[in-house]
């Protein structure tokens, strides 16, 4: 067997492999033994036809085609060892020559492991954002908390106003065709100065309980729906009016929303939480800038299949998040009105960015010998198990026993160590405090426990 590295580009290597005729001949013997068991030859029981009869019946090159299954995989493995390359994924085979009595010649094009030459990461410097939480931010948080604890209270002695919530009988017609069999449906509308729901809800202002009104609406021409451009008529009969009552911002509100003695304690806690959130956001922005600098300074080559794998992961992560919210990726595609491949094309830059970032962090961890021992992996598993609900802990612990899951957790911890080193070198030591260190890259441990994970890509896009 002889192998030559014919070309190499974009982390793909093509091996041109030549296999001796006698090796191919021996493989045809094995091919005959397998093939004769699968074919029916008139006048012979299955498996009993002589080789010359099989060759005459199926054609002279049938055994040679069958023999490829025995010759090419082992010859490819030998060629990989001889050429000292590191395959990343399975190869694509192309038969160049397959003739009786002649050497077998084939090409194997294979993605190889990525290579990374880091730039001077010691020279990277980024100015962290200054964190200042003023009284205005705290007051806004208190107002949001007040809004979240508001109540809808019925009123019947006045007209509907913007800011109210109304219950109604609703009959909908599209281009003159009445929906729901002509029967009014119970419905609720929120009148809001900025974002009414539905969007025509504010047209109900001024009505009283028992009043009837027709509201016309037109679906936008560019809407991604079969109803684009249609005229919709809503026949509304008001059944009830509610107004929002907001609680006072006082000690009673503080005690009702948590374990606070008074408003001062709630305000102090809100300020602390706002500061921590702002620091976490500043940290993400800082690390994004640092990683971008390191990627730009480095020379990175990787096979295209890595981007495809990352796109698969992005789709999977998005689908899991959607399922936790009550819908799925297929619904998302229908709402967006975009085909699956168009979404993948749109997300490709994000996938490429993630591939490059992960590769430079992995190389940095190797170069700086930032190893993660088994105790650290076990501690992280324990943290994750303790952080989930009791009914899922045993299953999560079992899942964590899988070698692939543990390796993923180890790689996540290594990435965090590398990112911490970059933080420190680039001037972000303030982000190394423990309360900001829980944002590890995603691990398959949690996702592996999701009962709704689709079994294939088709399950996501159909």
What's a concise summary of this model?
The chain is 46% helix and 18% strand.
**Overall pLDDT metric:** 88
What is the CA-atom radius of gyration, in angstroms?
33 Å
Distance between the termini: 46 Å
Q: What is the percent of helical residues? A: 40-55%
Query: Helical region count?
Result: 14
Shape: extended
Q: What's the number of domains?
A: 3
What's the level 1 CATH class of the largest domain?
A: Mainly Alpha
General description of the model:
The chain folds into three domains: 2-113, Trigger factor ribosome-binding domain (Alpha-Beta Plaits, 2-Layer Sandwich); 151-245, Chitinase A, domain 3 (Roll); 261-461, Orthogonal Bundle (Trigger factor, domain 2). 46% of the residues lie in helices and 18% in strands. The protein has 14 helices and twelve strands. It has helices at residues 21-35, 51-58, 62-83, 135-148, 251-257, 263-297, 304-324, 329-336, 340-367, 374-386, 390-399, 403-426, 444-447, 457-461; strands at residues 2-9, 12-19, 92-97, 104-111, 115-117, 151-155, 165-174, 177-178, 185-190, 212-218, 231-245, 299-301. β7 (165-174) and β8 form a beta hairpin. α1 crosses α3 (62-83) and α10 packs across α12. The chain is extended, with a radius of gyration of 33 Å. The chain starts with a strand and ends with a helix. Mean pLDDT is 88; it is low at 440-460.
């Amino acid at each position: 067997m002889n192998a030559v590295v014919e070309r190499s580009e974009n982390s793909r290597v093509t091996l041109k492999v030549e296999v001796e005729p006698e090796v191919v001949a021996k493989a045809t013997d094995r091919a005959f033994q397998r093939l004769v068991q699968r074919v029916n030859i008139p006048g012979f029981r299955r498996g009993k036809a002589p080789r010359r009869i099989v060759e005459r019946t199926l054609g002279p090159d049938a055994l040679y085609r069958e023999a490829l299954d025995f010759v090419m995989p082992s010859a490819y493995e030998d060629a990989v060892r001889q050429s000292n390359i590191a395959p990343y994924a399975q190869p694509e085979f192309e038969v160049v020559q397959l003739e009786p009595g002649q050497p077998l010649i084939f090409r194997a094009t294979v993605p190889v492991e990525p290579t990374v030459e880091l730039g001077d990461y010691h020279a990277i410097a980024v100015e962290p954002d200054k964190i200042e939480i003023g009284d205005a931010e705290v007051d806004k948080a208190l107002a949001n908390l007040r809004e979240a604890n508001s109540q809808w209270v019925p009123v019947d002695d006045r007209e509907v106003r913007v800011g109210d919530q109304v219950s109604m009988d609703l009959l909908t017609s599209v281009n003159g065709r009445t929906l729901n069999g002509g029967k009014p449906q119970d419905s609720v509308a929120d009148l809001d100065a900025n974002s009414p729901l539905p969007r025509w809800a504010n047209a109900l202002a001024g009505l009283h309980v028992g009043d009837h009104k027709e509201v016309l609406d037109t679906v936008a021409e560019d809407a991604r729906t079969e109803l684009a451009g249609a005229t919709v008529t809503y026949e509304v009969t008001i059944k009830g009016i509610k107004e929002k009552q907001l609680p006072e911002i006082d000690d009673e509100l503080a005690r009702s929303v948590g374990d606070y003695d008074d408003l001062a304690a709630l305000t102090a806690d809100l300020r602390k939480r706002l500061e921590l959130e702002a620091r976490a956001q500043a940290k993400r922005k800082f690390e994004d800038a640092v990683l971008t600098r390191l990627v730009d300074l480095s020379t990175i080559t990787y096979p295209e299949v890595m981007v495809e794998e990352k796109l698969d992961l992005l789709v999977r992560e998005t689908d899991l998040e959607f399922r936790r919210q009550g819908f799925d990726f297929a619904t998302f595609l229908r709402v967006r009105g975009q085909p699956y491949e168009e979404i993948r094309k749109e997300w490709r830059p994000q996938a490429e960015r993630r591939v490059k970032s992960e590769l430079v962090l992995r190389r940095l961890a190797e170069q700086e010998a930032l190893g993660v021992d088994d105790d650290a992996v076990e501690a992280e598993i324990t943290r994750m198990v303790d952080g989930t609900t009791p009914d899922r802990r045993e299953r999560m612990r079992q899942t964590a026993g899988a070698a692939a899951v543990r390796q993923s957790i180890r790689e996540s911890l290594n990435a965090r160590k590398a990112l911490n080193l970059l933080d420190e070198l680039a001037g972000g030591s303030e982000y190394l405090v423990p309360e900001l260190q829980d944002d590890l890259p995603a691990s398959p441990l949690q996702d592996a426990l999701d009962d709704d994970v689709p079994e294939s890509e088709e399950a996501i896009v159909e």
